[in-house]
Amino acid sequence: MSYVHRMTTWRSLAAGLIALTVTTGAVRGEQDPSKSADADKSQERSEPVVRSFGEEGGFRTETSTKTEGKLTAEHLRQASLLVAEVFQHIKEAVDAIDADDSERARDQVNKGREAIRAIRALLPRTAFHIKTTSPDGKVVYQDEREAQPDRIPLYEGIMHAQTLAPILAARRNAMEVAGLQVVESEVISTEVIADIGAIDGGLSRAAKALEQGKSEDASKALGAALIRGLSLRYSKDDSPLIAARDALWLARRSLEENNAAQAQANLLAAKRRLETYRDVLPEGQRQAVQQMLDEVERLEAQLRQEGNRVASRDERHSQGNLITRWWDRVNEWLH
User: Fold this and answer.
1) Handedness of CA 180, 184, 185, 188 (dihedral sign)
2) How far is CA 327 from the centre of its chain?
3) How confident is the model over 118-128, as pLDDT tens digits?
4) Which are the contacts of 67, defined by CB distance < 8 A and separation ≥ 6?
5) Which helix (H) or strand (E) holds 52?
6) Percent helix, percent strand, percent coil in the chain, to nearest 5
7) How far apart (Å, rounded) are the C-alpha atoms in residues 222 and 200?
8) C-alpha to C-alpha distance for 228 and 248, rounded to whole angstroms
9) How many whole angstroms separate alpha carbon 300 and alpha carbon 261?
10) DSSP string covering 107-161, please?
């Protein structure tokens, strides 16, 4: 594959991504004033969730997780908009390299890295600690690490294949592999995810290459940032329902661990998939899905109102039973 062909392919991919993400940004960017309270609470710290395993007098393992910040719908909207900006900066950097304007290319790469840092500042961080002790109380293993979500949804919903086809074709050409054929007349459920870790890595390599005057290496790094930093998941039929069911199960598990913040994030994911499923149904069949959506929103509001208060075991049990009923109902729809 020639250098010129690679540049053309990556520019085509970037153009498709920008068209997709800018449209998405316009949709996600409509701020709901009712969610302003979420934004105000975004920096609250949750209490550590501690779990112990093993019997008294034997080997014991204890895990502790503590999350700083909350993953709110408004933060996800902002992160999606910023990822769209990152793609724009990558495209302009590639164009600048093609025009032999290294200074402008460096500036665009640095702007993309700034946007990535802003995204990371928006997202919550979770500290994890694990410790294992022997029967005599001696620590035989311990470790700690910090994790942060780095996969940002750019578009969730319904898209015509004619919108996806150019992006898929560009990815196939850039990676020199055969991909799945998409029938133009089909309407498919899609989910587009940006991996900001992979994108940031490509931008870092591009910045280093530009400092060393290696324009072709910089262009390759930017192309890799687009290719490796994007996942397109698409399917027909019931994929939104399957994703909603999985998110509900995770929400129930989060409540079992008394992690209300994570439960809210999973309920938000379930709600988005249910909205997708509702929108593809005939008008007369949407009422049952809308009723569940209303119930999910009421539970979300209840969890938000808890603030720093620790819910009782009975409250969590009742909430978990409610989610279990939703889970059963979604399974009925699947079958």
Assistant:
1) positive
2) 22
3) 999 988 888 99
4) 45, 46, 124, 125, 126, 127, 259, 261, 262
5) strand 49-53
6) 65, 15, 20
7) 10
8) 29
9) 10
10) HHHHHHHHHHHHHHHHS-EEEEEEEEE-TTS-EEEEEEEEE---EEEEEEEEEEH
Enumerate residues 6+ apart whose C-beta is below 8 A from 144: 127, 128, 129, 130
User: In this predicted model, which residue has the larger pLDDT, 52 or 227?
Assistant: 52
Token pair, residue 272, equals: 């988005």
Are 153 and 143 in contact, with CB atoms under 8 Å apart?
no
Q: Is 133 buried (19+), middle (13-18) or exposed (0-12) by CB count in 10 A? A: middle
Using the structure block, give the residue that is written with the tokens 């950097």. 93
Cα–Cα distance for residue pair 253/219, rounded to 1 Å: 44
More confident residue, 281 or 109: 109
Whether the CB-CB separation of 74 and 35 falls below 8 Å is answered with yes
Name the DSSP class of 43: T
Type of residue numbered 286: R
Tell which residue, 51, 73, 71, has the closest CA to residue 61. Answer: 51
* Cα three-residue angle 137-138-142, rounded to 5 degrees: 115
- For the stretch 238-278, pLDDT in tens is 567 888 888 899 898 888 888 888 888 889 989 988 988 88
One-letter amino acid identity for 249?
W
Q: Which of 185, 191, 178, 182 is nearest to 234 (CA)?
A: 191
Q: Taking the CB of residue 279, how many other CB atoms lie within 10 A of it? A: 12
How many angstroms separate the CA atoms of 25 and 317, rounded? 38
Average pLDDT of the residues of the chain:
76
Place of tokens 């192309």: 223
Six-digit token pair at 151?
A: 């996969």
Determine contact, residues 173/6, Cβ cutoff 8 Å.
no
The pair of structure tokens assigned to 254 is 């989060």
- Which residue has tokens 């590639």? 94
Q: Does pLDDT of 75 surpass 60?
A: yes
Cβ-in-10-Å burial (0-12, 13-18, 19+) of 52 comes to exposed
Query: H/E element holding 67?
Result: strand 60-68
Quickly state the pLDDT bin for 206 (edges 50, 70, 90).
very high
